[in-house]
């Protein structure tokens, strides 16, 4: 086997992750694995941001999420695997914009582990692309990530075409019209977890969550590959 990131031949050996999942064969080499900055330690209980504190309290909330909570936050929480550092930005560029879908499978086992740890009672819902963006890209990266969970997901949402979120400031994102609408029926009283590639401001996820809550979801959370 070859590393899915650098393509060097893999050297078989024990890692910290192999002890958690003994049947798992790691798809990235030790060098590339070390460049992936995992989110750990004390986290904001809502958005999952790493906190610069040694607090042992189980409930720590960042200032952004305190603001969201005052605005009747529709998103219960977000959990992410990796910090969106320069190395991860290169990987995501290969994945999203150069069509290297195979690289996403390198993150599958850890993404599944996080899903089963935090969201085993939730139904995954991938964040959709607009029809125009889907035609341009050829695939929806959120559906690729949802597939990696190896559980059935529900495409409950559709999306109107808008300017790319990456081109907008935080203020512009927070003041744009909600682009999401229902494409399938929401099961009332059910819990859903939104699947997306990157958590940045959290606006996109909250816009999607608000639609699901409006039509009967009892709770909506988010699982993202990276945290900005």
TrEMBL record:
Record SUPFAM superfamilies: PRTase-like (SSF53271)
Any single Pfam family the record assigns to this protein: Pribosyltran
InterPro entries, alphabetized: ComF/GntX_DNA_util-trans, PRTase-like, PRTase_dom
Boundaries of every Phosphoribosyltransferase domain copy: 137-227
Family per similarity comment: Belongs to the ComF/GntX family.
Protein name (database record): ComF family protein
Organism of this sequence: Ectobacillus antri
């Amino acid at each position: 086997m070859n590393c899915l990131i650098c393509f060097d031949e893999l050297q078989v050996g024990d890692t910290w992750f192999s002890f958690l999942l003994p049947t798992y064969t790691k798809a990235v080499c030790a060098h590339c694995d070390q460049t992936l900055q995992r989110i750990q330690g004390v986290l904001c209980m809502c958005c999952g941001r790493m906190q610069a504190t040694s607090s042992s309290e189980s409930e720590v909330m960042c200032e952004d999420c305190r603001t969201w909570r005052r605005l009747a936050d529709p998103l219960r929480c977000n959990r992410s695997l990796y910090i969106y550092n320069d190395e991860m930005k290169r990987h995501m560029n290969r994945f999203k914009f150069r069509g290297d879908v195979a690289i996403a499978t390198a993150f599958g086992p850890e993404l599944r582990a996080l899903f089963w740890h935090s969201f085993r009672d939730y139904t995954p819902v991938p964040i959709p692309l607009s029809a125009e963006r889907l035609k341009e890209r050829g695939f929806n990266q959120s559906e690729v990530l949802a597939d990696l969970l190896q559980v059935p997901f529900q495409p409950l949402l559709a999306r109107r075409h808008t300017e790319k979120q990456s081109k907008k400031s935080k203020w512009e994102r927070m003041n744009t019209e909600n682009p999401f609408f229902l494409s399938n029926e929401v099961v009332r009283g059910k819990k859903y977890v939104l699947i997306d590639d990157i958590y940045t401001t959290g606006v996109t996820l909250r816009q999607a969550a608000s639609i699901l809550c409006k039509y009967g979801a009892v709770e909506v959370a988010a699982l993202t590959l990276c945290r900005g």
